[in-house]
Amino acid sequence: MKKILQGAQVKELDAKHISISGQSSQELMEVAALGFVDWYVAQDQFKEYGVLIFVGAGNNGGDGLAIARILTNQGVQVSVVPCFTDPDKLSLDASANWELLPKSVQLLDFNELKYEGDLVLIDCYLGVGLTGTLRESSIPIIDYINEFSGPVVSVDIPSGLPSETIHQGLAVRADYTVTFAFPKLSLLLPENAEYVGELVLVDIGIEEETSKVFDSNFYYLEEKDIPALHKSFHRFSYKGDYGKILIAGGSPGKMGALILCAKSALRTGTGLVTCHIEDSERDIIQTAVPEAMASWGLIANLEFYDSVGIGPGWGQDGRVHLLTQILEEFKSPVVVDADGLNILARSKELLELVPKNSILTPHIGEFSRLVGPAKNHLERLEMAKEFSVTNELILVLKGANTVISLPDGRQIFNSSGTKYMATGGSGDVLTGMITSYLGQGYEPENAAICGVYHHGLAGELAGAKKRKGLIASDLIEAIPETYNLLDIS
Ligand SMILES: NC(=O)C1=CN([C@@H]2O[C@H](COP(=O)(O)OP(=O)(O)OC[C@H]3O[C@@H](n4cnc5c(N)ncnc54)[C@H](OP(=O)(O)O)[C@@H]3O)[C@@H](O)[C@H]2O)[C@@H](O)CC1
Ligand SMILES: Nc1ncnc2c1ncn2[C@@H]1O[C@H](COP(=O)(O)OP(=O)(O)O)[C@@H](O)[C@H]1O
Ligand SMILES: [K+]
C-alpha cells in the first residue's frame, strides 16, 4: 500500500529512489511526463483539443516542458506560457527540458495572451515546492487560469494549493488533478474538493519499499493491494466455509435497509445469512430475500454465527437490550452501523462491551454523535485515530475517499468509489459486505479493507452505466463483477 508523505518529503523520496534505482532525476521527470501524457491522450473528451501549458521555474514547470515536447511529438498542437522572467532561473531538470523544447512549440507572453479554438489548459505553474503564502506576482496568473473557459488539468497539485492543509485562499480550481507517485494529503480532504476536481494518480515507478523509512500514518489503498488480502476457497468448500452471519436490523417502515444489507452479504459470498427481525416483519424479509433465514425474539445460539452485523434500519427504541445481549455473548468482532452506532453514542458505557477489533462504520453525522463534532476533516482524522487506538476498534469513516482508521494508528484512504454512490442505502450495502468478509474468516482489518474497496469499485462499475440513476440495489448487482475484474475466485 502506498504511503502518503508530506510534499516537503518528495525531494528526499526522489533522492532515495535515484540512489536505489540508478535513474537520474531528469529520467524520473520524463517518466512522470510520459505517465501524464498516457492518461491525457486516453481522455476522449480532449480528442479535438489543443493545449496551453503554464510552466513555472521549478520541477513542476519542468514536468510541463517535458509534457509539451511529448504531446507535440504525438501531433497535439501545443503552446507554452512561461511564468518566469529568466530561463537562467529554471531548476536543473526544467532547464534541460527547456533546451529540448521543439521549435514548433509556440511560446506565448502571459501579458499578451490571446488564444483561439478549443484548448485544454495544463497547469504546471507551482507544485509541491510551494512554500509560505502565495506571492503577489502569482495572483494574476492563478486568476487567469481560474477564469479560463475550457477544461483545466493541474499537474501534481493545483498551483497555489499547499500539500497538507485545508485551503481557503487563492489556488487553481482544476477540473482534473493528475498527481505523481502518491496523492498529497490535501488532495484527499473534502474541503479542498473545489480545487482538485477529479483525482488521478500516476505511478512513476518509485517502489513502496523506498518510502518505508519515512514517517507517516497515512496510506492510500489501490486495486493492486486487494487480491492478496482475499482468502481463497478450495474445491471441496461447502456453504459453512463461507460463513454463517447474523444481521440485526430492520424495523417497521425500514426493512429496506436490512434487505439491502442481507442481499449484499449474499452477493459478497456469505453461505448462510440470518436476519434477526421483529416478528411482524417476517413476511417482508422472507419474500424479499428468499435466500436468507429469519429469527425473532431474543437471539438463540449466538455462538453458531461467524459474524454479526448490527444496525441498518434498526431504530433505537427498545434495542438496547438486544444490543447488550449481542455484545456480551458474541466474543468475536462485530460490525456496527447506523442505529447500532446511534445507540452506542447515547449509551457510551456499552462501548466497553464492543469486542476488540470490531468494525464501526459511521458517516460524518454518526461520527459526530459517537466521537464528537470536528472543526474540519483534518481534526476528524485526528479524533478518529485517537478513538481507534484508545478503544482498539476499527473505524470506517465513510464519504468520498472513505478512511479506515486502525487500532495501531494507521489510516487508510480508499481510492475506489464515485459521487453516484451518494444515494440512500449505499451504507447498508457496505455493512453487508464487511459482515460477510468477517464471517468468511477474514482478519477484521482485511474485512474492512476488502469491503470498502469492493463497495467503491461496485459503485464505479454501476455508476459508469447508471450515472445519477444509480440506486443501492445496483451496487449489490455489481459486486460479482468486481470479483471478475480482480480475478477473485
Ligand atoms: N517524486 C515526484 O513526485 C516527482 C515530482 N516532480 C515534480 O516536481 C515538483 C516539485 O518541484 P520543485 O520542488 O522544484 O518545486 P515546484 O513545485 O516546481 O515549485 C517551485 C517553484 O515555486 C516557486 N514558489 C515557491 N513558493 C512560492 C510562493 N509562495 N509563491 C509563488 N511562488 C512560489 C519557486 O520560486 P523560487 O522560490 O524558486 O523563486 C519555484 O519557482 C512536483 O510538484 C512535481 O510536479 C516530477 O518532476 C518528478 C518526480
Ligand atoms: N461522493 C461520494 N464518493 C464516493 N463514495 C461516496 C460518496 N458519497 C457517499 N459515498 C459512499 O456511499 C456510502 C453512503 O453511506 P451512508 O451515508 O451510510 O448511506 P445510507 O445511510 O443511505 O446507507 C458510503 O460507503 C460512502 O463512502
Ligand atoms: K501545478
Give a short synopsis of this structure.
AMP binds at residues 398-402, 427. This protein is an alpha/beta fold and 489 residues long.
Give short descriptive properties of this protein.
489 residues, alpha/beta, Rossmann fold, UDP-N-acetylmuramoyl-L-alanine:D-glutamate ligase, seven-stranded parallel sheet, 15 helices, 15% strand, binds ligand NPW, binds adenosine-5'-diphosphate, binds potassium ion
Structure overview:
The protein is an alpha/beta fold and 489 residues long. The protein has helices at residues 10-21, 25-41, 59-73, 92-99, 139-147, 193-196, 255-268, 282-288, 320-329, 338-346, 364-370, 377-391, 426-439, 444-466, 472-486; strands at 2-3, 50-55, 78-82, 106-107, 119-124, 152-155, 176-180, 198-202, 218-221, 244-248, 272-277, 293-296, 307-310, 335-336, 359-360, 394-397, 403-405, 411-414. The protein has two domains: 17-216, Rossmann fold (3-Layer(aba) Sandwich), CATH 3.40.50.10260; 227-486, UDP-N-acetylmuramoyl-L-alanine:D-glutamate ligase, CATH 3.40.1190.20. Helix content is 37%, strand content 15%. It has an eleven-stranded mixed β-sheet, with helices on both faces. A seven-stranded parallel β-sheet has the order 4-3-2-5-6-7-8. The radius of gyration is 25 Å and the shape is elongated. It binds ligand NPW, adenosine-5'-diphosphate and potassium ion. Adenosine-5'-diphosphate binds at residues 363, 398-400, 402, 417-419, 421-422, 424-428, 430, 455. Homotetramer.
Write the topology of this structure.
Blueprint: E1 2-3, H1 10-21, H2 25-41, E2 50-55, H3 59-73, E3 78-82, H4 92-99, E4 106-107, E5 119-124, H5 139-147, E6 152-155, E7 176-180, H6 193-196, E8 198-202, E9 218-221, E10 244-248, H7 255-268, E11 272-277, H8 282-288, E12 293-296, E13 307-310, H9 320-329, E14 335-336, H10 338-346, E15 359-360, H11 364-370, H12 377-391, E16 394-397, E17 403-405, E18 411-414, H13 426-439, H14 444-466, H15 472-486
Parallel strand pairs: 2-3, 2-5, 3-4, 5-6, 6-7, 7-8, 9-18, 10-11, 10-13, 11-12, 13-14, 14-15, 15-16
Antiparallel strand pairs: 1-9, 16-17, 17-18
Helix pairs in contact: 2-3, 3-4, 7-13, 7-15, 10-11, 13-14, 14-15
Potassium ion binds at residues 60, 123-127, 154-157, 159.
InterPro entries: Carbohydrate_kinase_pred_CS (IPR017953), CARKD (IPR000631), Nnr (IPR030677), Ribokinase-like (IPR029056), YjeF_N_dom (IPR004443), YjeF_N_dom_sf (IPR036652)
Binding site for (6S)-NADPHX: 59-63, 127-133, 156, 257, 313, 363, 428
EC number: 4.2.1.136, 5.1.99.6
